[in-house]
Structures are given as C-alpha cells and as structure tokens.
Amino acid sequence: MSGRSRAAVLLAAVVSFSAVLVPSAHAAPRTPRTVVLDGARLQQARARLDRDPRLRRALGDLTARADAWLDQGPWTVIDKPKPAPGGDIHDYLSQAPYWWPTTAPTADNPWGCPYVQRDGRRNPEVDSGTDRQDVEKVFDSAYDLSLAWYYTGRRSYAEKAGQILRAWFLDPATRMNPDLDHAQFIPCKYDGRAIGIIDFSQSYTSVLDAQAILAGGAPGWSSEDRTAMGKWNTDFLGWLKNSDFGKQEGAAANNHGTFYDMQLAALACATGDTALARRTVLDAGGRRIDPQIAADGSQPQELARTRSWHYSTFDLVAYTRLAAIGRHVGVNLWAHRGPDGQSLFTAVDYLLPAATGAAAWPHPELEFYRYAASDVVHAAADAGDAAAKAAVPELQAPPGGDLWALRPAAEQLDSIAG
Predict the structure, then answer these.
(1) Conformational region of residue 73, where left means phi above 0, alpha means psi within -120 to 50, and beta covers everything else
(2) Which residues are within 8 A (CB) of 71 and not within 5 positions of it... i.e. 6 or more apart?
(3) Which of 28, 146, 278, 387 has the highest CB neighbour number within 10 Å of its CB?
C-alpha cells in the first residue's frame, strides 16, 4: 500500500484496550468479496479475536489508525488551488516527484523552468498545490476505517469511510473524473505522463478492498453508493485499458509495469471481468517475472536506482498482491519458475539477509528502512517459502505496528515517492 501518513498514525498511537470491541458486540458482517485480501481469512481472524492475544494487539494498532482518521477529511479533488494544465478542477493532478527547477522563479518564468531530474530526491513542492497527498490520505483512511469497522462493528468507522469515498469519487460537486490524464506533470514540459498512473496503482487496490468490506453490511454505505462506485471503477478500468497513457504504462518493463498489471487485474476482478483478471495474472510470469527477476533473485532494474532497497521491496509489493489476486481467479503466480529458476520466492529470499538484519544491504540506498520488506516476507512465508517463514520472527515491525494478521496483503511500508 502507500506510505502511511505517519503523523496520523502516531497521533493515536496509544489506544485503551477496553475501547476495542469484541466481535460478539455486533452482528457479523458478510464475508467480504475482496480482490486482494482473502475474505474468508478475514472472517477467520475476526472469529478468533476474543481468544488470540496477538490479534487483539494488532487490533489495538488498527483502531489507533482508524481513530486518527475520524476527525480528518473528507478530502476532494477540487481542493487544489488551480486546475490541471489543460484539464478541469475535477481532473486529478500530481507533479513529478524527482524533477527540480533550475532557476529562481520570476514573473516571466514562475516555475523556474527548465526542470531537471534528480532520481530519488523528492522535490518538496510536489506536496503542495496538487492532489497527491490528499488522495493518499483517501486511500489509507478508507482502508483503515473499513477494516476497523469489520473487526469492531463501530458505526463511526464505517460512516467515516463512506463519507470519504463519496466526497472523492461520487458527489457530483466534488467527484474525481475517472482518469489520470494529468498525473505527474512536469512544469513547462508535460501536462501529464503515463508513469503518473502509479499514483493510483500503488494503492487503489486497497480502496477496492475497502469497498468490498463496506458492502458486507456497513452502515452509511448504501446500495446506491455501491452501484455508483462500481460505475466509477468500470469507467476507470476502461480508461486504463484503452488510453494511450494506459497502454504506455502497461508496456513498462520495471515496477511501473508490475503495478499496472496489479491494478488492471484488481479492477477487472472487482467489476466482474474474471477473464481479464485471470489472463493478466497468467501472463505476468513470462511477461514480468522472467525478464525482471534475475537467477539470484535480484531485480536489476530496481537495483540501479538510488533507492534500490525501496524499489526492490516496492516491486515485490505489486507482485505479491498480484499473486493474491490470482488466488481469486485460479492462478498460482507463486508457482511460476522462469528459465533461469527465477520466481517470486527467489526474489523475496534475496532480501532476507537485510530484512532480518543479518547483513547490510549491499546496494545504493538513500534511506534504508529494514521494515520495508516485512510484508513481502510475510506473503512469501504464507505462500510456503521455508526461508521466509524462518525469517518472520526476525522482521522489524513498521511504525504503527505489524498488521499482517488482520490484513494479510503486502503494503509498501516505507515512504513512496513516485
């Protein structure tokens, strides 16, 4: 998932244990028809809460996150100070994170153009004046709140999640257009770029699961909301498949292509196009794993980045979530073996020495966070990797706690910068 809003998480880092409700306190929601998460597994975890101290501790961490969102938002795409270049106020807008001005702004050159790229170094101006930070809050809050409602039954969580989703996606006055024509623009250069699709593909699948959870009987999420959200998802899937930007991103040979496939398959699954979802996961073996993962499990294109640890874990978030989608459509991506033996297991195992603290990461990394690999190691362990299973006790918990037991699907746990 996207990097969590650390301030929001830490704001409510301490939660009274007595405030965590037990499942018996409310009518059980239906098993959610999630597209990444395993709905049956969520149901099993919920049934064990009252007798499993580990799950109860994780629930305390989850409700701390959810409580922090209750007095925030909702956010809307029309909150930005000016529309996207060449678009309207309802078009999503974000700015390329690693591009910087070369001169001081003037009246004749207000942006300081031309812009140049500094890979891995985030330009702070991208966090103001666009929709990027707000949409990440929408993604994170909807996911946390829907999960917290599922496990506790607290009405306030579900109602807040519904309010946030309606404001961003559904209300006519504030809704986002279902396209990403103006994502990651570069001032004075491009009004939008295909690689901006990753703004959504890195986290929107969590929103699809949040919608599925709320559809299980959440108060404040009506049949009209479900229908309207389904229409938005169908329109967005159409744009993703048919637009020039979508086709370019689908052709990308690095993590952008992996995340594109993950988002495409998830949207297809959520909107009923099982054939497209299945085909996308099946094709990922030869189309993604074989050329992107080396025989030793390294990811050469990600290792070439200035943040090689971040991007190696980042790509595997997409792969492991794509494998989770495959489970829903009858494809076992974990079983794929390339001509040189490459697989998702070998890729995760390549990270284990650094993930457990047994050895230093031997490649360039501007900001090393050991916990960034924790979820993908959990995913490999659950899929049957003995080395990953042995490594789980040595993993570093991310800020805000290890939530794997309650939401067993990988998120990107360190910061995401495009």
Answers:
(1) left
(2) none
(3) 146
Asked which of 18-32, 309-323, 330-344, 379-393 is least confident by mean pLDDT, the reply is: 18-32
DSSP3 helix / strand / coil % (the chain, rounded to 5): 55, 5, 40
Give yes or no for a contact between 83 and 106, defined as CB atoms under 8 angstroms apart.
no
The pLDDT value recorded for residue 7 is: 40
Residue 216 in tokens: 């299980």
Question: Which positions ≥6 away from 391 have C-beta within 8 Å?
Answer: 352, 355, 356, 377, 381
DSSP of 351-371: HHHHHTTSS---S-BSS--GG
Check residue 27 and give its pLDDT: 63
pLDDT confidence tier of residue 111, bands split at 50, 70 and 90 = confident
| Euclidean distance between CA atoms 176 and 376, whole angstroms | 31
Residue whose C-alpha is closest to residue 388's, from 334, 339, 351? 351
Number of Cβ within 10 Å of residue 166's Cβ equals: 20
- CA dist., res. 5 & res. 65, Å (int): 10
If you count them, how many residues does the chain have? 418
Phi, psi of 306 (to 5 degrees): -70, -20
- Cα distances from 331 to residues 67, 274, 379, 389, in angstroms, run 37, 11, 16, 22
Pair of tokens at residue 113: 């153009």
The Cα–Cα gap between 117 and 60 comes to 42
- Give this prediction's pTM: 0.89
Q: Which two tokens stand for residue 256?
A: 């952008």
pLDDT digits (tens, 9 = 90+) for 136-153: 999 999 999 999 999 999
Q: Can you say how many angstroms the Cα of residue 248 is from the centroid of all Cα atoms in its chain?
A: 21
Q: Which of 282, 286, 289, 309 is nearest to 373 (CA)?
A: 309
Helix (H) or strand (E) run with residue 159 in it = helix 155-165
Q: What is the mean pLDDT of the chain?
A: 91
Tell me the CA end-to-end span of the chain in Å, nearest whole number.
13
3-class SS of residue 290: helix
pLDDT above 80: residue 266:
yes
In Å, how far are 60, 124, 155, 295 from 180, measured between CA atoms?
Answer: 36, 21, 33, 35
Segment holding 99, helix H or strand E: strand 99-101
Proportion of the chain above pLDDT 70, given as a percent? 93
CB-CB contact of 347 with 293 (8 Å): yes
